[in-house]
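User: I've been trying to design a sequence by hand for this structure and keep getting stuck. Would you show me what you'd pick, starting by listing the structure so we're on the same page?

Assistant: Good idea, let's start from the same input. This is the structure you sent:
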């Protein structure tokens, strides 16, 4: 039987610090170095003041459920073994949204449920944020 290679990110220059932080077990968010607005996903320009200067701040790792969905279809064979899988859009304490898979029991999930963000290693080089109901 052929082993299916995992699907891994291809970070942009702007997103590399995000993935480097996750590998260290920390969720950091991009912040405008001029006006201070936090943004996610990482991108070159601040949507508030159009500055190209940024820095990175450690996230509190807390938030609430904005929405969620349960995926029953694998869009790549590498994800088939994880189905069904719940994906949650989280309103982070920093005011931005993060999409990540849910870990643990999803039975009591609801819009507004308090969640914790954890970091899960895929291998030695790649880690992802995951969501757990608080
Ligand atoms: Zn700005």
């Amino acid at each position: 039987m052929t082993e299916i290679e995992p699907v891994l990110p291809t970070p942009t220059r702007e997103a590399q610090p995000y993935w480097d932080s996750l590998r260290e077990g920390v969720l950091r968010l991009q912040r405008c170095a001029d006006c201070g607005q936090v943004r996610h996903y990482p991108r070159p320009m601040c949507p508030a003041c159009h500055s190209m200067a940024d820095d990175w701040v450690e996230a509190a790792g807390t938030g609430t459920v904005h929405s969620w969905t349960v995926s029953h279809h694998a869009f790549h064979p590498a994800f088939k073994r994880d189905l069904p899988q719940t994906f949650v859009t989280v309103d982070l304490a920093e005011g931005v949204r993060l999409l990540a898979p849910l870990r643990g029991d999803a039975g009591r999930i609801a819009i507004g449920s308090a969640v914790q963000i954890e970091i899960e290693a895929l291998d030695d080089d790649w880690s992802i944020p995951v969501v757990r109901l608080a």
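That's my pick for every position. To get oriented when you compare it with your attempt: The chain has two domains: 10-58, 60-134. The radius of gyration is 16 Å.
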